[in-house]
């Protein structure tokens, strides 16, 4: 009865606009009282400090800062120009350019929303001018933004690593192949749509101009190379790689003559706001996780799932559904904070590798932002570009189907995800 009261009170506060981190913390404290575990409340501050005082989690604000600087310092146009030189000559070329630009963005910012907003301002008008429908241009922009959090660096992977004590470096390495597979699936879907709807070819850029654009974009392209090569070969930790990413992004911005004190101040200010919101959410989750451990909730859930015959890949398929729906309705950090401490330990106890589980969860949550009826990336692109939302939804369905097929492959074939981490000693 007490548990039902706590649940109803939490729903009422959430509907009233309460801050989710405060709500999670308050509900956790009330749950301690309801479960007659009040004697353990004195240990909560220590549990919160232990939950956030991790060396790997220090990389989160630094990667956020690198992405904020990138979006303000001219790297966007340089990456777009080199993608245009490489892919525009193909049929449906600007669609391919859109996808390739997202791959480049992913290696620096790791943010789907930043990707969607930036490309909506630049490529969507260019695609419309070249003869694409506004809805198709918006749909492929939203669909390709999914790549951002999957190809490292990824804020979501750092958050997952902090929640489950999983190697962030291992998660980064594991994200490379799934991210590129999703990009290849989008290229294929765009090529099919280009031939079905007779999409135009873009400009054919001469070899000399392609080389010039490549050299000009080199400072932007070198950032993800530095990050991943340093992590893969053990030269730097993810936190040191994040600091290096900030330095490289500033140097690239100086090369493009876009770095000013106001730009740096705005980037740091935005980073502080985002980091603060994430850390207070982690603090609320720490209290909930402590109670879940005391009550053996993950073990009980694992026993329940086993009794229902939902073990191994069957349980993973269930998690796919849960996290995909959660990604449609909740912000990604919120969905991670609410669901991972409860559902992930049961999967790991069943023998699912935590790195494989993390990649499956990350892909599900990011696909949720392009899944109707409440896909956040679709809403952002619609607001920025002026494209009709439901028209974009229809145009995005072939891309979403291609991405879901990749997700199913990743779920059922864990070696696709784990091969690189094992090769480099992270799994």
UniProtKB/TrEMBL annotation:
Organism: Pararhodobacter zhoushanensis
Keywords: Cell inner membrane, Cell membrane, Membrane, Transmembrane, Transmembrane helix, Transport
Transmembrane segments: 99-124, 136-162, 168-192, 213-235, 241-259, 271-293, 313-343, 355-383, 395-413
Subcellular location: Cell inner membrane
Subunit structure: The complex comprises the extracytoplasmic solute receptor protein and the two transmembrane proteins.
Top-level taxon of origin: Bacteria
Membrane topology designation: Multi-pass membrane protein
Presence of keyword Ligase: no
Family: Belongs to the TRAP transporter large permease family.
Domain spans labelled TRAP C4-dicarboxylate transport system permease DctM subunit: 8-416
Annotated Pfam families: DctM
Protein name per its UniProtKB record: TRAP transporter large permease protein
InterPro entries: DctM (IPR010656), TRAP_DctM (IPR004681)
Keyword Transmembrane helix: yes
Functional description taken from the UniProt entry: Part of the tripartite ATP-independent periplasmic (TRAP) transport system.
